[in-house]
Amino acid sequence: MTRHVGDLSLEEAVTRIEGPLLFVRRTVEVGLNDAVEVIGVDGRVRLGRVAALDESFMTIETLESTSGLSMAGTRIRLIGEPITFSLGPGILGRVFDGVGRVADGGPPVAELVKAPIDGAIINPLRRAKPEDFIETGISAIDTLDSLVRGQKLPIFSAGGLPHNRLAVEIALHARLRATFRDGARAAEREVSEDSGTVGETAPFAIVFAGIGVPFDQAEAFRLALEEGGALGHTALFLNLASDSSAQRLLTPRFALTAAEYLAYHEGRHVLVIITDMTNYCEALREVSASHGEIPSRKGYPGYMYSDLATLYERAGRIHGRPGSVTQIPILTMPSDDITHPIPDLTGYITEGQITLDRKLDRAGIHPPIGVLPSLSRLMKDGIGAGFTHADHPALANQLYAAYARAMGARLLSSVVGAEGLTTTDRLFLEFGQGFERRFIAQPEGARTLEESMAIGWELLKILPVTELTRLSDEQIQRYLRSES
């Protein structure tokens, strides 16, 4: 058989239609994951791809509803290549559906590059080390679990927690701080609201993808970015809960393809925010079951780890190429279980996690970031002298240690009462309350790193100097005794 491109009549060739899948007798040479167009007797064109094949049959996965399709009279147009995304300079400021079609009523994006959505494998030798601090405007992230350009740092949430609100806040306020690595200073430049550029030399962009979101939430995302002035330097992808599960599997791939174009063709530093990866994994389980594949843990396919890796590993920097791709995937842990396969596998692939805490949320603290279980493994590569501030690492270490001690004091006070605590433990208890109410909580909106650090230094004044073992004498003198 020779590779076929064009229309293929499926008269008497379709053996079964099951959900989004068409099971077809194979009469031509096609490739796995080749794009197809399924055309019903009503003339409606549905995008699809070859999901499985053998010598005699092939399975076609449609990305839209198969309602109205019949086993007779259906045609397939074979594209002869994998699904691609047409990209061009006008992609920023636009809204797309889950499979890259313009959804804002505007004209199509003028094509400059046509890229396969599965991306290209990055040679490990060409990967550059992630570095440079990205400011999110969230104190608990910027100060204690800093995001670094080229990193993949997921947010572990749970049902009912405000992860969507946090995602929008990061999209509105994230910026790349220009740095001067002379070992002495880190200079900050403002982000242009119109072009999303940092200063004059470091263009910055956001790619925001909503997977399986209800219509009202999708509209809330669009309105928030538009009213906040961030839509101009954002490409927004919205896959609705009413869309097919097969579409859900492609949404992050379209979003990441757009991010790679912005990074490696336009030289931008791109922050990709994807919510909710749990919806993606549920769709992966559903489609895998429809294929008749043998399930693994909790019914998810055994290849879910490698499938997630094909998404997460598209973050990074490449030697000799402009720009970078940084990822913040957001997932909700089923039953608040961090050992569930979705957060468990995500944790293996990514470089840390930001964990949302239900107790903080119930206490009215926003964002409810649980500091102690959160971690950014690449934080050290983006902070300190020449990146943020020379005293940033020491402050972060001291705040973390003090808050951990405060949590121990809180636990002890629940047993013996506050009166049974030592004077030092009562001071740590006061520090912990202030840390949650003044540092983690920020209902007024975004903070700069300097504002976050100033609050941190102020809170440390509550504690005895003898307990500040992570700070140098010079730092204690400069920040904690300067007024005495």
UniProtKB/TrEMBL annotation:
Stretches assigned to the ATP synthase A/B type C-terminal domain: 381-479
Pfam families with a match to the protein in the record: ATP-synt_ab, ATP-synt_ab_N, ATP-synt_VA_C
SUPFAM superfamilies linked: P-loop containing nucleoside triphosphate hydrolases
Domain ATPase F1/V1/A1 complex alpha/beta subunit nucleotide-binding: 137-376
CDD domains named in the record: ATP-synt_V_A-type_beta_N (cd18118), V_A-ATPase_B (cd01135)
InterPro entries: ATP-synt_VA_C, ATPase_F1/V1/A1_a/bsu_N, ATPase_F1/V1/A1_a/bsu_nucl-bd, P-loop_NTPase, V-ATPase_su_B/beta
Identification of the protein by name: V-type ATP synthase beta chain
Gene: atpB
